Amino acid sequence: MGLYLPVAGLIAVSRRSLEPLKAVLERQRERTLAAEKATSAIIPWLFHREGRPVTSFRRACLTARRGAGLSGRIPHDFRRTAVRSLERAGVPRSTAMKMVGHKTESIYRRYAIVDEAMLKKVPRSCKRYRPSQPCVACAKGSGGAR
Questions:
Q1: Does residue 5 lie in a domain region?
Q2: Radius of gyration, CA atoms only, the chain
């Protein structure tokens, strides 16, 4: 599982990416502190353009992805990864929706892709949740009610 950073929602970060990301954030914080000292002004943003807020998310995101070696990815790839990880971790859907910024269930479901591995875990999850009761969902099969 990765780490989630609260940056306008969540960003899924794999453990192997954590150290390089930490280094980028620390360098940026140092730049921000230097800019504050040079201008005698407080800069409330970690990422900024000479003390002014970043106004073009598209350009900033493209630059960041290139720098991270992820130029082929789009922001929705990261959001989808976050949703899948939250689903697999068993985070309640209402909480996950709030974390990733989805306002409707239908939009959230587009990102919550279910794969065979997740379906195979259902019986174990049911047994852990209610060890003494049979799982109604498992009895119906993966296709739902018959």
A1: no
A2: 20
